[in-house]
Design brief:
alpha/beta; eight-stranded mixed β-sheet; two-stranded antiparallel ribbon
């Protein structure tokens, strides 16, 4: 029995050592790969992804600001697959893409995959050209803000919520009471102002008449083909077509094959390094947390894209 126990202990130690060795090897491999891609070679195209709900512009903006100054970067290709998101973050993405082409003289092309709506569509206005698939969903030009009135739930639970405040509107939108008519009017005025900013950005980016843009600024969804026909996008095509457009803008010969530079991922984590799944990111608790973040905030987001209920 002692011999068997020692044998099992040695086997267990061997498994642990092998596992640690594999982790170390994987980390070294990933680290080496990141070092190889940490600096773009000559004649590179910076490829950035804008995926999912836009809550924060980072790390997209970090990579954009860092690499657009590199003389080896000849242009920026943005792959978009997003329903939009928070107003401020969407506007910052737009402003920095616009700054990239104007102040840094680096052409920017947006390649829209299956979805480029609302805030993502706003951000795309900062590009020189917008390339879409015929069935890409675009548009949703509008602003939305959602509130939850839990007054009856608190009554049922015999919980009394109240607040001391210094102004009429300081608790506007609080979940323990209904919105008053004054509060609704105040929020609507804010949304109308932000919508005007959205319309202006589209009119500027697409060189369109503001009245035409406003005609379609009612939250409707466009197909890629319709958007091209009406001037909201430049042409239908794939990622390859978007790359071709960018090469033309950057003065790169069509026969040339520029290096597609993908910034190294920041802090991928041990599980991802090992190729293991860390679990579903769309868990109920994560969805509730994300929805709580979005409530009461003006959003450029396509209706139906809130996590709860998906």
């Amino acid at each position: 029995m002692r011999f068997l126990g020692r044998l099992l202990s040695l086997i267990a130690i061997g498994i642990v050592i092998a596992f640690l060795f594999s982790v170390g090897s994987a980390i070294v491999a990933i680290s080496g790969m990141s070092q190889l891609e940490s600096t773009p070679p000559a004649n590179s195209i910076l490829v950035l992804d804008m995926n999912g709900i836009i809550l924060d512009g980072e790390p997209f903006l970090t990579d954009l600001r860092k690499f657009r100054e590199d003389p080896n970067i000849k242009g920026v290709l943005v792959r978009i697959n997003s329903p939009g998101g928070v107003v401020g973050a969407s506007q910052e993405l737009y402003a920095e893409l616009k700054r990239t082409k104007e102040e840094f003289a680096k052409p920017v092309v947006a390649s829209c995959n299956s979805l480029a709506a609302s805030g993502a569509f706003y951000a795309a206005m900062g590009a020189d050209k917008i390339v879409v698939n015929p069935g890409t969903l675009l548009g949703s030009i509008g602003v939305i803000i959602e509130f939850a009135n839990l007054e009856r739930l608190y009554d049922w639970a015999k919980i009394e919520r109240y607040a001391l405040k210094t102004g009429t509107y300081k608790d506007a939108g609080a979940e323990y009471k209904k919105l008053t008519d004054q509060e609704k009017q105040m929020f609507q005025g804010t949304l109308d102002e932000v919508l005007a900013q959205f319309v202006s950005a589209i009119a500027t980016g697409r060189k369109m008449d503001e009245e035409k843009v406003r005609t379609y600024a009612d939250g409707r969804i466009f197909t890629g083909k319709w958007a091209v026909d009406e001037g909201f996008a430049d042409k239908t095509g794939t990622f390859t077509d978007a790359l071709r457009e960018l090469k033309l803008l950057a003065g790169i010969e069509d026969s040339a094959k520029p290096h597609l530079f993908y910034p190294p991922e920041k802090n991928p984590g041990v599980l991802k390094i090992l190729g293991l799944s860390p679990g579903s990111e769309s868990s109920l608790s994560e969805n509730i947390r994300l929805s709580a973040q979005l409530f009461g905030r003006p959003l450029f987001i396509m209706s139906g894209q809130f996590p709860i209920g998906k």
